[in-house]
Amino acid sequence: MAASMMHAQSKEYSLNFDSEKYTIKTAQVAGKEISFRAYENVVYVSHPVDVRYQSMNIYIPVEYYEGKNIRKYNADTAPIFLPNDVGRYMSSQAGAPIKDRRTGKDNAILVALSKGYVVASPGARGRKLTNDKAQYIGKAPAAIVDLKAAVRYLRFNDKIMPGNAEKIISNGTSAGGALSVLLGASGNQKIYHSYLNELGAAAARDDIFAVSAYCPIINLDNADAAYEWQYGHVKDYKVINLVHPGYIEIFTETLTEEQIAVQPKLAAMFPKYVNSLKLKDENGKTLTLNDKGEGTFKEYVKKFVINSANKAISEGNDLSKYSWLEFKNKKVVGLDFKTYSKEYLSRSKSAPAFDALDLSAGENNLFGDLTVDNKHFTKFSATESSVKAEMADVDIVKMMNPMNFIKNTSTQNWRIRHGAKDADTSLAISTILATTLRNHKKAVDFAMPWDIVHRGDYDLEELFEWMDKISTK
Ligand code: DHB
Question: pTM (2 decimals)?
Fold first, then answer.
């Protein structure tokens, strides 16, 4: 072969886990020393297009090589914790056991290892990734295909690796939370097969046992309508600019005339969508909205906020300063949803929030292809578009929305958190997800924790309690 054709990554990678290729690492977690084998940068497909991202770090407590137990787990039964580090649908590398940069706390990987979990943290390609020909190689559905390939690798090697690949528990935040949900919803779906085959993914199933997701930015096809249903009366939005790591700028922008004009149109689409889902509450009562966006579904969303406020009060917080909460005997009994959304949450996006008319949203960038950087992915924005634009392929849009697959998923266990102070997507979006899952008889732990903005992994003790409970029942 001519030297010029020798691509660094045209080499074929083995899908067999090499048990001997590790280093021993130690860490202090909650005052206790832990030791584990670190298998880092393990490429999980045989024909990667970028090994920086199509690889994972695998960490295994040393006890599992010494025939010992950690708590109730051993080498055969330990669940596999699968956290991704995806944010903003950008490329992400495999995660490592470190202290959180901001808080100094043990990250989820360290906590998992200390509790006897095997950890596999996959990297994934993201929307701005290019190859040496300046082609975009991380556009949708690249990230979900990569995570599926990582799951297949773990299952393919289950016999020779400690940990139980039938107990894979995915975790992620925001775009990473969305991918975690999608991984659970779309296990083994044929629509992804050609992508997996092209990468040389292992021949194994890619369904998982459980999903944890913080503020998942999902259901992008309907998220613009949901956003205006909640924030259609708000005309200012907060822009958060990451100037450089550790320094952010926050300023307020006002929607343009053109953006204000689409708000009522999008808001009007939402009741039709909600009603088409035929959602039911715990008592079998149908959740709907009328033309004005009012109805049982709205009261249902509010109930999660009210429950969250009452939990915060029971934990000693004083919420009496919030005029939009209605109190009776020191308990919250009502919520002025409009004022809460405007004054406490406040908009964090323009309109449409996700499929921007000028293609400027991160999600437009997610749906580009090899040569086109940004596309529309909804009929609405394609029709109203203010710039010359293409529409994303319908199958690719389908592959990125977990709502399309819930009725067929075998994943039973779901934990979903959406902070009651998080305006990156409408609270309706996670409520629809949780309710749809419950209506399909899944076990769903869903809450909107009080005062929590757009972030994740803030309640690791509770997360691992849930993981222990589902893993040992
Ligand atoms: C993320 C946040 C967003 O508001 C969004 O639209 C997509 C992704 C994120 O933090 O990952």
Answer: 0.97
